[in-house]
Give the backbone structure.
Amino acid sequence: MSDSSDKQAVLAANQAFYDAFSRRDIGSMNLVWWQGSTSLCIHPGGQVLTGWDKIQASWSSIFNNTDSLEIDLEILKVEIDQSIAYVVLREIVLQSSRGRKVKAPSTATNIFQKMAQKWYLVHHHGSPIMR
């Protein structure tokens, strides 16, 4: 696979993550993440979640406690090696829950690993941007 097709595949996997996030779709989220014990997720201001079981439970909780999500993205950096890639971006998440809207800007790093010709999300770290 050429560099440009790898970049397209990584950006498509990154977009699939945010599509699943904004649609609150745990089934689609399952397809994006590597479901092993080595996956990591750090939600803004949260603990380090290790392993797909804990990560999936965290997303399920977010989705179940949210009425709607809108996510605005600005990709700042994309780097790709043979089997590891990272995307650094700014996320602005507009979350609506029980009639309350919260706007949460953060900087995020998504790390993807290529396994069996597919790029999987293995690490998501969101860090709140303080005003």
Notes: The beta strands are 40-42, 48-50, 68-80, 84-97, 100-115, 118-128.
